Amino acid sequence: MERKVRTAYLKVGMYVSDLDRPWLDTPFLIQGFIIRDQDEVRTLQNYCEYVCIDTERGIEAESYMDEDPGLPTNEYLESYLSHSKKDVEYVDQKTVAQEIPFAKTALEDATDKITSIMEDVRDGKNLNLPAVRSVVEPVLESIIRNPDALLWLTRLREKDNYTYSHSIDNCSLAIAFGRHMGLPKDDLRTLAIGMLLLDMGKMKVSDEILNKNSTLTEDEFTEVKKHVEYGVEILKGTKGIPDDVINIALTHHERYDGSGYPSGIMGNIIPVYGRMAGIIDVYDAMTSKRPYSEAISQHSALQKIYNWRNKFFQDELVEQFLQCLGVYPTGSLVEMNTGEVGIVLSQNRTQRLKPKIMMLLNSDKTQYENYKIVDMMTQASDASGHVMNIAAGLDPGAYGIDAAEFYL
Q1: CA dist 137 to 130, 176, 208, 391, Å?
Q2: For residue 57, what pLDDT band results from cuts at 50, 70 and 90?
Q3: Sheet of 341-346, strand order
Q4: What is the spatial distance between Cα 347 and Cα 224, in angstroms, rounded to a whole number?
Q5: Rounded to whole angstroms, how far apart are CA atoms 73 and 177?
């Protein structure tokens, strides 16, 4: 019987009956063979994402691409994606200005603590779950009161370590996403912990590979992908970690069309938290400066994610994510049709094309002496009576603007 298997699961003794590409494009001259040694395993992994094995002519695999692993999902969220009935209707309890001091304290405390938590794991110590919860709780409470304040700060702060900052950004975005979808507080907490810890396995990958500023080799990329396996192992070995948190780490690189890893599962077989995690993880990665890649604008990242709906990501979840962040998310640099340039300060929850913007540059691209705040809901025209609209999202650093200067 032929079964499709990710090459990550290949073992010596399996009978390879077909490849995911023409045999002539590989070093294998015989079309159908028993894997004899680890060198052949590595060669197959270098050339193929998956192969077909004949389980009657060789040993079986631990996992197949065509089987449902039976991972639990969040039933409320599955229902919400069909009916859009929120379990909780959150309302802003504070303005952005009122929430900023609390959000800043929560973010800076989270940055210090996640650094310590991850470094302990890197040094071989156990994951400190109480410390993880102490990171999540202030961030959760701040975003429940008003998500724009903390999301503003996450976009503008200096980021010394991508992996650590990425974990906090993921956590914050996940809470905002879940809040938008009406998740009860306990579920927001579970999602937040899962997103904070999904890259924990990278603590077992060498800094040389993680910080490499050029394209990874096949072997290096194979090692990076093992962070999923390493992370799941760490989480399973930590007392009190919910299964939903473990499954976020396990499935955040799976894709809706089955093209992800490590198992190549697809569609709604991927738990809904894992489907959400994939969108959040990719969005934050694209909008952050990484060792091998410059950041792109939040607006451009959302356009890419929109174009990947029902391919890499579920259409309904993409739609909810776009509604959550707005067309021009909080912290985005934007250029107005008047030629002015500003940063999106906060969203209008009912009309996402009319956010509140801090104007930084005038139409001549010179800096305002005193930055002015424009609420597009109440101020539709400039001083000359011209209707104001956002003309374009800008990449980070456009016109020499250093967003970190506006970290309040």
Answers
A1: 11, 14, 33, 38
A2: very high
A3: 367-375, 356-361, 341-346, 333-336, 390-394
A4: 36
A5: 17
Tell me which CATH homologous superfamily contains domain 75-325. Hypothetical protein af1432 (1.10.3210.10)
What phi and psi, each to the nearest 5 degrees, are found at residue 231?
Answer: -65, -45
Query: What are the Cα distances from residue 324, in Å, to 52, 176, 182, 353?
Result: 41, 7, 11, 12
Candidate from 129-138, 157-166, 220-229, 240-249 with smallest mean pLDDT: 157-166
Report CA-CA distances (Å) from 405 to 98, 172, 212, 363: 20, 21, 28, 21
How many CB atoms within 10 Å of residue 59?
13
Tokens linked to 183: 């998740």
**CA end-to-end span of the chain, whole Å?**
62
pTM: 0.84
Q: Is the peptide bond before 22 cis (omega within 30 degrees of 0)?
A: no
What residues does 359 pair with on adjacent strands?
342, 372
For residue 151 the two structure tokens come to 């999301």
pLDDT value, residue 187: 96
- Residue 101 CB coordination number (10 Å): 11
pLDDT at 83: 83
Can you read off the two tokens belonging to residue 360?
């930084």
The residue to which tokens 């969040």 are assigned: 74
Q: What is the pLDDT of residues 42-51, one digit of tens each?
A: 899 889 888 9
CATH 1.10.3210.10 in the chain, residue ranges: 75-325
What does the pLDDT look like over 148-182, one tens digit per residue?
999 999 988 877 788 889 999 999 999 999 999 99
- Provide the token pair at 260: 């992800």
